[in-house]
Amino acid sequence: MEKSLFRYIWTHSKRDQLLVCAVVLVSQPFYFASLDLPRQIVNQAIQGEAFREGQATAPFLPFTLSLPEWLGGASFPIFEGFEVGRIGLLLGLSGLFLFFVIINGAFKYWINVAKGVLGERMLRRLRFDLFTMVLRFTPEALRTVKSSETATIIKDEVEPVGGFIGDAFITPVFLGMQALTALFFIMVQNVSLGLMALAVVGIQFTIIPRMRRELLRLGKRRQIASRQLAGRIAEVSDGIEAVQVHNSYAWERAEIGQRLYQLFDLRLRIYNRKFIVKFINNFLSQLTPFFFYSVGGYLAIRGTLDIGQLVAVIAAYRELPPPLKELIDWDQQRLDVQVKYDQVTQHFSEERLAPTLLAKEDAGEEAPLVGPLVAEDLRVSDPHGGVILNGVSFEIPLPADVALISGGASVASLMAQILARRMTTFGGRIRIGEQDLRQIPPAIAGQKIAYAGVDPILFPGSIRDNLVYGLRHKPLGQRKEDEREALRRIREAQRTGNPIENVADEWIDYTVVGAKDEDDLDRILIDLMKKVGMGNEIYLFGLAGRIDPERDPQLAEHLVEARRRLRETFQAEGMADLVEPFDPQQFNDQSTIAENLLFGVPTSDAFRGRNLAENSSFRSAIDQAGLFDELVHMGRQIAETMAEIFEGLPPGHSLFEQFSFIGAEELPEFEAILRRSRSDAALTKEDRTRLLSLPLAYIEARHRLGLIDDKLKVQFVQARGYVRQEFQKVEADVEFYDPEKICAAAPVRDNLLFGRVSYRVANAQARVAEAISAVVKGLDLLEDIERVGLDRQVGTAGRLLTAQERASVNLVRCLVKRPDILVIDGALAPFDETRAQKMIKLLIELGRGRSLFMVLPNDRQVEDFDILMRFGDGQITTESNAGRTSEASEPQPANAQRIAGEVA
């Protein structure tokens, strides 16, 4: 980046800066005229100087063009004006003053809007430039730079920089011109008063900036301390598991408290300094009116200065302090922002960035990375200067399957990182054919080399989004977009140096994976997920997923048909007791009371749990059905039973999970409610709501407290109509069940069952799962449901998936883009040895004709590899695998002899 903030601003915005500055210059004559009008109003209209010779009228708005004295001083009347009386002149001049006020206000409005737009455009450019540099961080820089600090810089710390950009050139020009115009006007009225004002202004601009230097130093320290606080909070958040395991809450609280105290102390010192400077600045600003009133008044009394001039001077000076103060503030902001900008440029220093920008080459046009992999005088040192590899040379023919046997040392992982370009700080040279590994453009390397490390990196989104991440290199087709909005978006992108590509366009390159379209790609993804052992998980994710009937009406119809077929299967095979179906005219014993009353699925939290009990529409519905008091009474019975059951039990007891109405921490609250429930009148509205929320989660078949009889069941079924009627009035976020339709808010599994599995039948869940699987396969719906499973959200950093699932997704993401070189470094760690061995065979099988480098701890899993690479004493030895070839080779130093001809 440019080291100078002003050079950066001028480089990217000089056209807009000059345009606004031109408008500022154009506005100054109007500003000067508005300063002169108060003098004319007082002297000519109020004091009557325009009528001094006894005339009844005077000209209003005369316009005469006068030449300077050195050109003869001739005058040329252009317009003689309108003849008006004294009142007419007063009103005319006052109206003209108001007109210039409006004109000046319009100029200020346009200038401020233009500055704001310019600042926002430049802020967008600056943030994008910084993000682009984040993409250029070297692997070594990524290990030392805290992501939270980088995000804080781009999001928060450049915000004031962006706010200043619009003011960088325009504000000093605008405010300076206003101040100079006001000073010039005062000088025109009286030189002495003008010199006094100029002297005070000079003192202000000399003293105040010097006093603010300490503020800059303190502000820099505060900025660094704030950034470190954000980084530390992120560290604790990322390592919260260690905090909880080792009970270090108190120490972490004390450590953050100390940092907050240091920030408080810095801010306090900044406030003290800031307001001392402000006090002195205000004093100097008020010193000039003192001179105007005293000296100007004396001159007016002596007759050397008329009252109109004094009034005009005072009025003009009223316009002088604001721009001067803002100019001083601008100078302070300039220094402060320059410090922030310097901090940003230091964070994104050149030594942290890769030497080249993201290239635009198309990897599809490049030759594959095959041929001899040659290392020449390879040298690697640890951070303390210790030698890890010393002058290593070797040659391996590619494609090949190479096992990097670590033997418990980390050097094998370092070698894997070097081959995957995840480590660039090494000496010597590595080339593939004639291409230097470090000189391969990033775009080419990103498509032809894949790396799977021990910590899979998944982004928030669906499994599908993560699997196809390596296929999104450039837009390959445009989605339909409003033409005017598209032109505006592209125009703004060009003005701010942002990409013109639309993220909504088609970015997935189907040709890389060999797919025809989106459906074909899904089939390939599902097939690969099955091969790595995640087929059952994808199927279960699909059953737990949801579909949109409007988006996929054909699948919705098939699911309704599967629902009927499943019901027929249960009836035909004597399994009808496994599932109690949803029936609009029947109470469902396997469902909660809330679900029976709603007969649908809430789509927002406002209609779930306690929020439902607090909902006025719901309360009105159950009150109309005569169930409100009944449910409150039922809640009291549940609370009494739970208090009796849980008495004396520790908080983690299994009964709390079985009876999930009340948590251990809520028991004292409900015990207090029970003590107040001797009479209904004693219960508050809050108490009744709390009691009402308990039976809403009650399931008769599961909890078996005997609270629901046949009469109540009938009442609950009748209440459904009242609930639906009330909810439809307010358009509540609830999707109601319909036996002939799919409920988009319910999972696929619930739509297939359209009921609840019985709690009374042993092993019902497993038997129902088998029946669902049979029907799904029989109707050829398996692939559709697995496709729904690809929509499963992985969460932040993939935390909604298990370690094995994250590793599997990461491996498939690497396989999908069909790299020429696949490097596996600890990616199989979550799997047991048997499954890991199967995964190795799979990776080798899927990578036929391509290269695989895998870090292995020992020789137990090397039988399928072509070449074995061993590490020890700063050297590398390679050998062709005897188990893979018909002729075994003795291990030998890699830098002693080529092994290309020995590999089968």
TrEMBL record:
Spell out the Pfam families in the cross-references. ABC_membrane
Question: What subcellular compartments does it reside in?
Answer: Cell membrane
Residue ranges of every copy of the ABC transmembrane type-1 domain listed in the record: 63-329
Q: Where is the composition biased (Polar residues)?
A: 878-895
UniProt keyword terms in alphabetical order: ATP-binding, Membrane, Nucleotide-binding, Transmembrane, Transmembrane helix
Among CDD domains, the record links this protein to: ABC_6TM_exporters (cd07346)
Give the Gene Ontology MF terms in alphabetical order. Answer: ABC-type oligopeptide transporter activity; ATP binding; ATP hydrolysis activity
Topological relation to the membrane, as annotated: Multi-pass membrane protein
Gene3D superfamilies reported in the protein's UniProt record: ABC transporter type 1, transmembrane domain, P-loop containing nucleotide triphosphate hydrolases
UniProt domain ABC transporter: residue ranges:
373-898
The residue ranges crossing the membrane are 87-111, 182-208, 279-301
The record's GO CC annotations read: plasma membrane
Q: What is its main location?
A: membrane
> Looking at the keywords, is Plastid present?
no
* InterPro entries (alphabetical): ABC1_TM_dom, ABC1_TM_sf, ABC_transporter-like_ATP-bd, P-loop_NTPase, Type_1_exporter
Q: Region (Disordered): which ranges?
A: 878-904
Q: What is this protein called?
A: ABC transporter ATP-binding protein
